[in-house]
Amino acid sequence: MKIVPDTSVLIDGRVTSKIEENEFEELEVLIPEAAMSELESQANRGQETGLNGLEEVQSLKKLRDEGKIRLEFKGKRPNLEEIKLSKGGEIDSIIRDLAIEEDAILLTSDIVQSEVARAKGVNVEYLEPEKEEKKIKVGITDYFDEKVMSVHLRDGLKPKAKVGVPGDMKMKTIRDEVSSESELSSIAHDIIERAKRSSDGFVEFDKGGATVVQLQDMRISIARPPFSDGFEITAVRPVTKVSLDDYRLSEELKDRISEKQRGVLLAGSPGAGKSTLAQAVAEYLNREGFIVKTMEKPRDLQVGDEITQYTSLDDSLEDTADLLLLVRPDYTIFDEVRKTSHFQVFADMRLAGVGMIGVTHANRAIDALQRLIGRVELGMVPQVVDTIVFLEEAKIQKVYDISFTVKVPSGMTEEDLARPVIEVRDFETGETEYEVYTYGEQVVVMPVEEKEEKKPVWKLAEKEVKKEFNKYVRGRIDAEITSDDLATVYIPENEIAQVVGKGGENISMIERDLGINIDIQPHSEKEKKVKNNEVEGPSIDVRVQNDQVVLDTGKQMASETIDLYAGREYLFTATVGQDGTIKIKKGTNIAKKIIEKINKGKDIKMAK
Q: Which parts of the sequence belong to the AAA+ ATPase domain (predicted)?
């Protein structure tokens, strides 16, 4: 008896299992070179399917060595053009031709291959993929109990797990013996095989040394070289399933998303409970009679069977969105919105009238909105997202209501400064916490704090004033907004006459362009404000490191422009880096001066 196994049954490992069950007698197995080529290509790309298939071939070779079967490799290897057309069935066609030539039974678990072969008169045995309805135990599940959220296995390291409840998770070592590469390879193989055969599992993707599997309620990521520098398996599952009633503000949120289709972002840091809340919202909307779908890559939300879960179509979430627009759901749960293309898909569906619940990473509630700015036209933002729900330690900490108006931004007084403004209001109190608007060419996200000593908009105006004066002044420029319609600008004394101009024509033109009155003063006037030989500002830490002098102002000063003083003596003006430091080359004059002042016991202080 001759059989020709195709790629699908070699990957499944079904040939050796049927031989060992004595289902074939005096068997000759003809392995197509085309199938070997496909398996080799998959293995070279780091795909687990290719490695599984090659392991099955090795098992068949062992059966041949034991005298249980005859084994040959036959047929032609596909050429480059046939490989390119493999998705269209060219490789399958070569394998069918071999079965016809050898008058052999084609063994396959690919339903399309089976039907095409039967239509062409090929003798086919179709092995239907096995289904296991009962709960499946894979090696990795032995590490789980009701308090384990995730398991982390890495070759050469002891297995670890995140244990606890949302908001109180700790990483613990769960076995003293280190994991070996062969052990992890065996576990990975078992996971993939069971996912393929289970009605409760599927392989999300498998390429380049990375495999993602969904099995029961677990999302399992498998990484191996060359994608990673070692063999690693990470399994994550929800440790609890909650309803929307378990959250603070549940009734208000229910009313909000039930009254009409909304654009909602569920935001928080990793592990904050965003997906758990998304599941609760999905189940609530489904119970209320809304048609709910999900869009996930990978699919790992734990929702009821009435909610269909979609992933990327041909590796494109844009194509998935096109399909969903034909399905016309009331709400789509998008887990998770991360890339620019994701936000654009979210916006397109929202503007088409679909209610959208997006899950996104953010360290603060306002950061979720800022991730949208620049990816969606500013004026469309409130139509795309009108609600932000921020979670921390599995609890709702903040809800924002996003609305649109035309007004003078807080801190501005001139009527001609009115512009479109996005107001970010606290959902509970109704108070505006942030305003988003354009100022010049910038998009500004400005906190609204009435009690702040210096209005936020003044700080922005000071930068604009300095930018304008840079056109006329070569030396150092300091600007201070002292009221809504007055700025004091300090410049070198020898440049004041030139800036003022004949009859004040230059300064009048600057005032007209800026829309504010300007009082020009020499730097010496600003220095008179220094009291008791000290600047009224905090001291900063100064370190000499290798070839640099590092002035540490603190991260809260990142991107601010500040003046540096030693005692009452002005040193220089600089813009603070993103890490809160100012770095100066050691050999420069200013670096030497700073070191000299420190050696004389002077504190280096800053003033804005």
A: 260-384
